Amino acid sequence: MDYLSKKKEYIFLNNRQALVRVHVKQVSKQPYSIWVEGKSKNYRDCVALLNRTLVKFDPQLVPPIVVVSNKKLGNGAISSYVFEDNVIFFNNFYHSTEQIDEITHQNLFIATDLKEIIRHELGHKLHWDAIKRFYLSHKKQYNNLQEAKNDFDSNLESYITHQLNNNYSYLIENVSTYANLAFEYAKANYKNNSVNEVIAGVYAIHGSKDPILNDLIMEELNYGRKH
C-alpha cells in the first residue's frame, strides 16, 4: 500500500469501555477515505477486502474508515461508528471473507456479510446525523445533543417497549438477538442509546418484518434531510 503524508490521531472508547489512542496514516489512491494503524499483511488484506465491498456504496455517503488492531478495538469487535469523529473503526483481524462469514453465521447479528456490516455502521451514522439536525433546529429547547436525542428517539423507544411487553421475543424475531440484548442493556444502563442497535440493524437489511417499525425508523433517519 502507498500512503499519503497526512497522519491523524484518534482517541475513543472501545467496546470494553477502555480509552484508546491510535495513530493512523491515510491509504493513497483510494476512492474512499481509508486510514490504517499498521502496514502488515493483515492490514493490506483488510483494505483490499473493504475496497471490494465499498464499490457497492456511494463514496459521498461513506465516512472515513480507520483500520485498527483487534486489541485496540476490543477483542472480537468487527466495527464501530464513533459519531464524535464521524468515522468507522474496523478491526484488522477480519481481513478475509472466511473470517467475516465465521462471525455472521453465528446468527447473533442481523448482518450476513461485509456489505451489511458496513450498512449497519452507516445506519448509526445516519441516525446521529438526523439527531444533530434535530438538535440544531431545536437548540433553544435542549442543553446538549444527548438531551435532544432522548426526545428524538422517544416515539421509537415507546413503540419497541410496547411490543416487547406483548411479546418478549419481538426484537429477536424482527431484528436480531444482538439488537434485543443491546436494547435491554441500554435501557437499564444507558437509556439515551436504547434504540441505536435496532435502527442500525434494520437499516443493515433494508427493513424488518414489521412495517410500522420500519416507518418509525425511516422517519427518524430522514428527519430534516434534503432529498
What this model shows, in words?
The chain is α/β, with parallel strands linked by helices and 227 residues long. It is 48% helix and 16% strand. It has 10 helices and 6 strands, in the order βββαβαββαααααααα. It has helices at residues 41-54, 70-73, 97-104, 114-137, 145-152, 154-166, 170-174, 177-189, 196-204, 211-221, and strands spanning 3-13, 19-27, 34-36, 65-68, 79-82, 87-91. Strands 1-2-3-4-6-5 form a 6-stranded mixed beta sheet. β3 (34-36), α1 and β4 (65-68) form a beta-alpha-beta unit. The model has no long low-confidence stretch (mean pLDDT 93).
Structure summary:
The protein has helices spanning 41-54, 70-73, 97-104, 114-137, 145-152, 154-166, 170-174, 177-189, 196-204, 211-221; strands at 3-13, 19-27, 34-36, 65-68, 79-82, 87-91. It is an alpha/beta fold and 227 residues long.
